[in-house]
Amino acid sequence: MPELAEVEHFRRRWAVAVGERIRTVSVHRNARVFRACDVAALVEDLPGRRLLSSEAAGKQMLFGFSGGAWLGIHLGMTGSLEFVNPDATATATATDTATATAPAPAPADRHDHLVLETPSGRLVFRDPRLFGRIRFDRGRGAPAWWLAIPPPLTSDEFMLADLGTFLDRRAKSPLKAVLLMQERFPGVGNWMADEILWRAELHPARQAGSLDLPERRRLYRWLRWVCRESMRVVAPSFADPPASWLFRHRWSDGGLCPRTGHALVRETIGGRTTCWSPGRQPSPRKLVKKSTSRG
DNA sequence: TCCTATGTTGTATG
DNA sequence: ACATACAACATAGG
Fold it and tell me: Does pTM surpass 0.90?
């Protein structure tokens, strides 16, 4: 599920516990999501600390704790965050074990790899497919990997020239693959890339370096628009975008373009299933053909 | 049984 | 060193 706005939505789910103290930490310590994480440090360090802050940047999240501890979360393909209020019966039993010194048991659900218990509930990280990633860092300021994430695509720091530079550096790659590169387009994922290219009327297989200036302007404009609008529409409630978006038609075979009414096409481009509207997004082959005249 | 899946990364090749 | 392409990761559901 998680691209830019969905990640922001999950961040907000955990943010309800900002200010609360972590009472216990339970983990599936051998889960792949901890491959870049010192699990022992996390489990020993976090209890007693207070959750102070939460941020999302692209598909990454960072939760800050009192005393200089940082929990980084990437949701991979199937990760999610949830805050679970204990029901009345569960509260009694959970409270009784709170003072116990024995290590916290592993979470009951096999896909819940990290659970932070607070006085009012449980912060749950779930990820069936295990492509997600948990990081734990200590220090006064945010960790280096976090600071290296480029600025939001909706901000003034991301300019047309930045887009142009990157397109030229990846000149031979299809636009679809280029838009998925997080080092330049943090938060853009498979459905967002298709949505952007569809709105910009650019075929996903076009080589990045082949775009003229008007096309670059279009890409820039709709890239920012999709980021802004998805944040506005999706982040608060996890709502689907309106039916006027490609999003609502791209998932299965037989979908129709909401602009042209003609059949959408689905094909693998840049290693990912890609959906586009042939009547709206002219193929690279056709574009090449138009320059046949020679003086 | 086979195919697909809203993501990243390691590795091979040019 | 850089750019590009793709298999691999692990699980669930159609």
Answer: yes
- DSSP three-state, residue A113: strand
The torsion angles phi and psi of A20, rounded to 5 degrees, stand at: -90, 155
CA distance A281 to A91: 56
- In the block, tokens 């922001």 appear at A8
Q: Which nucleotides of B are covered by protein (CB under 7 A)?
A: 4-9
Beta partners for residue A83, in sequence order: A123
CA atoms of A100 and A112, how far apart (whole Å): 22
Q: How far is Cα A173 from Cα A67, in angstroms, rounded to an integer?
A: 45
**Which residue bears the tokens 């600390």?**
A49
- Contact yes or no for A166/A38 (Cβ under 8 A): no
The tokens for A61 are 């999240």
A3 catalytic, yes or no? yes
CA to C1' distance (Å), from A252 to C14: 12
pLDDT tens string A59-94: 999 999 999 999 999 999 999 999 999 864 444 444
Distance A143 CA to B9 C1' (A): 21
Q: How many residues does the structure list for chain A?
A: 295
Cα separation of A187 and A242, whole Å?
Answer: 20
DSSP string, A261-294: -SBPEEEEETTEEEEE-TTTS--HHHHHHT----
According to DSSP, residue A206 is labeled S
Rounded Cα distance between A191 and A272, Å, is 10
Q: Does residue A173 approach strand C to less than 7 Å at its CB?
A: yes
Q: Contact A70/A137 with Cβ under 8 angstroms?
A: yes
The integer distance in angstroms from the CA atom of A171 to the C1' atom of C2 is 13
